[in-house]
Amino acid sequence: MADVTAILSIGQVAERTGLSVHALRFYEQEGVFVSPVRRGPGGRRVYSQDDVDWLTVCIILRASGMPLPALRRYADLVRDGAGNEGERLALLREHHERVTGQMGRLAQCLDLITFKVGLYEDLLDQDRREAEPDQRRPSGGGDVPASAAGTSARP
Amino acid sequence: MADVTAILSIGQVAERTGLSVHALRFYEQEGVFVSPVRRGPGGRRVYSQDDVDWLTVCIILRASGMPLPALRRYADLVRDGAGNEGERLALLREHHERVTGQMGRLAQCLDLITFKVGLYEDLLDQDRREAEPDQRRPSGGGDVPASAAGTSARP
DNA sequence: GTAGGAGCTAGAGCCGGCTCTAGGTCAACC
DNA sequence: GGTTGACCTAGAGCCGGCTCTAGCTCCTAC
User: Fold this and answer.
1) Which of B99, B110, B155 sits opposite A64 (nearest CB)?
2) pLDDT above 70 for B153
3) DSSP string of A90-153?
4) Which nucleotides of C are covered by protein (CB under 7 A)?
């Protein structure tokens, strides 16, 4: 546990979290921080390592699609301290579901995309092969010019 | 291949794609359709089954995070017909990467979330068990009230 | 013949999540 | 003592992707 009380400026925090200073102020305003951001001389924001740690969690939650209101709610719960762990768990489980759901949907989408990539690869392969003296074969690719579809995609 | 020339109103297409009529007009305006949407008597939009098929693909691409400009570009290529399959393949591959990348990132995020869910489950489990006459054990849960991190937390 | 419902266009509005601007303070350096 | 650079606040702006509104045209049914 080193340097827990490290004191960082907004610029430093921006640098090490990858967030912009704008975003940091915005997050603060949105109530995403667990403890109110302290102020140093001249009213400047002063961040601790804990703040950065919390932000790191926030960034991950955001990256996985947690909306800001949920993030704020989570922060509220943590801020309120012990006693609401059930609620926190519920919130995290909800998000867990959101993420697995999204991953499932993406996997499905990926199937189609992979399939189409395969079609076009085959098609181009074939074209290449036809360029050499060999047999030719009229080829229906992935997305035919639309009016002639019907036989097109779908595995 | 049944009823390829089926003629559908915007309302019907909205109903069977799940898009709103607004979105359909918006997509048209954005050039997402491969063939210009035909018009029936009174200037009303008339859609074919092909249009619906194409929309289904669009919906999947959108759901996997393809931006509208890319979708439009793809439609442009398909509209231009044979000869640009290489470009289409490139576009699809790019999107394929985007999606796998996103899935990877989500999987990472999910790790954290799963971990935290586990922590809170354990914590609550323990609390439950402590309610019965048994041994107690001070536990560092998930997100301590932030300023007191490192040490204290849960009584 | 009039009421209802679906459609049309052009354009405004909204939401989430930042991002940027204007105008100012403050401390440090040359 | 002037410039620079990091920071401050309040509030406007932007982007993507829709969504909604206003005001109109049709068609059908009562």
Assistant:
1) B110
2) no
3) HHHHHHHHHHHHHHHHHHHHHHHHHHHHHHHHHHHHHHHHHHSSS-------SS-SSTTTTSSS
4) 6-9, 11, 16-21, 25-27
- B87 vs A: CB within 8 A: no
Determine contact: B2 vs chain A, CB below 8 A: no
CA–CA separation, A12 and B120 (whole Å): 32
- Give percent above pLDDT 70 in chain A: 83
Question: Which chain A residues are Cβ-neighbours of B120 within 8 angstroms?
Answer: 85, 88-89, 92
At residue B58, the pLDDT reads 98
pLDDT at residue A92, as a whole number: 97
Q: Please, which pLDDT band fits residue A132 given cuts at 50, 70 and 90?
A: confident
* pLDDT, mean of residues A64-80: 97
Residue-by-residue DSSP string for A43-88: G-EEB-HHHHHHHHHHHHHHHTT--HHHHHHHHHHHHH-TT-HHHH
Whether the CB-CB separation of A67 and A99 falls below 8 Å is answered with: no
Give backbone dihedrals phi and psi of A39, rounded to 5 degrees, phi first. -120, 140
pTM for the whole structure: 0.85
Taking contacts as CB-CB distances below 8 angstroms, the residues of chain B near A124 are 85-86, 89
- Whether residue A109 lies within 8 A of chain B, CB to CB, comes out as yes
Question: Which pLDDT belongs to residue B46?
Answer: 96
- Averaged pLDDT score across all residues of chain B: 86
Mean pLDDT of B81-99: 96
Within 10 Å of residue A113's Cβ, how many Cβ atoms?
24
